[in-house]
Amino acid sequence: MKKLGLIGGTSYHSTIDYYRMINEKVGDKIGRDQNPPLILYSLNIALMRSGDEEKIKNEYLRISKELISIGAEGIIICANTPHMVYDFVQARINVPILHIGQAIGDFAIKNNFKNLGLLGTKPTVKKKFLENYLKENYPLEITLPEESEIDQIHHYISKELTQGVFSKASKEYFLEQMKSLEKKGADAMILGCTELPLLIKQEEIEFNLIDTTGLHVDLAVNFILGQ
After folding, report:
1. Per-position DSSP letters for 53-67, written without gaps between them
2. How far is the C-alpha of 112 from the C-alpha of 116, rounded, in Å?
3. Kind and range of the H or E run holding 214
4. Alpha-carbon span 36 to 169, nearest angstrom
5. Angle at alpha carbon of residue 84, lines to 78 and 89, rounded to 5°
6. Which stretch of DSSP H or E encloses residue 124?
7. Contact, 102 vs 137, CB < 8 A?
8. Which of 8, 17, 142, 191 satisfies CB 3.0 to 4.6 Å to 131 for a cystine?
9. What is the rounded CA–CA span in Å between residue 175 and residue 181?
10. Residue-level pLDDT, tens digit, the chain, 227 residues
């Protein structure tokens, strides 16, 4: 098995799911009497809240190099928003970063989705790093929320979900946003914040959901097992 380095902490709630699910899914394939070698670095989420892009990029690079120095053969960033550092960090290290966009794009193509609605933090929506990755690598259209809704979406994510608060009000709000994205042409919804799959489950609703956490974990499992 390949040794994978995990960069988590944004938030620790979803990082726990990454760690648990990677262990469980590898165990499903090789037997639950075994588990994969993982190295987890959980950073302080205050780094992301600072909005200091240079500091964020350089810290992710430092952490990646530290993980590599102790044996990581690949890196997974356990969240959507920090993928803003992908181009900067990947160009400066010699192991692959497993991009969450690959997990999303592969799943969308497999399921014949054409137009993906994107729900995520303000940086994820406004900086377009995820949207651009998907458009550059897959024949997909990306539909964004109304400009007037982006701040409220970010508020629910940063002030509630990443702090472990999963309220009825936030769930109803995100379901309304999905209805709006569907009206604009989206045939599937990217849960572009790794806490959103903790709030909304596919079996509860009619929309096609793209669970970025679960799909990213599958990518990690395939890497670990060399598949």
Report:
1. HHHHHHHHHHHHHHH
2. 11
3. helix 212-224
4. 38
5. 85
6. helix 122-126
7. yes
8. 142
9. 10
10. 999 999 999 989 989 999 999 999 999 999 999 999 999 999 999 999 999 999 999 999 999 999 999 999 999 999 999 999 999 999 999 999 999 999 999 999 999 999 999 999 999 999 999 999 999 999 999 999 999 999 999 999 999 998 889 999 999 999 999 999 999 999 999 999 888 988 999 988 889 999 999 999 999 999 999 98
Cβ neighbour number for residue 122 with a 10 Å cutoff: 16
Question: To which residue do tokens 């075994």 refer?
Answer: 34
What gap in Å lies between CA 226 and CA 206, rounded to an integer?
35
Distance, CA of 42 to chain centre: 15
In whole angstroms, how large is the CA radius of gyration of the chain?
A: 17
**Kind plus residue range of the DSSP H or E element containing 186:** none
d(CA 31, CA 119): 36
Cα 212 to Cα 24, 41, 80, 102: the distances in Å are 17, 20, 8, 10
- 100-110 and 212-224 helices, crossing angle to 10°: 100
Length of the chain as a residue count: 227
What's the one-letter identity of residue 114? K
What's the token pair of residue 173? 């709000």
Query: Shortest CA distance to 100 belongs to which of 79, 131, 114, 119?
Result: 79
**Residue spans of beta strands (DSSP E) within the chain:** 4-8, 38-42, 74-77, 115-120, 141-143, 188-192, 209-211
Amino acid present at 25: K
Nearest alpha-carbon partner for 187 in 129, 121, 131, 117: 117
Residue 142 pairs in a beta bridge with 116
- 108 token code pair: 């969308």
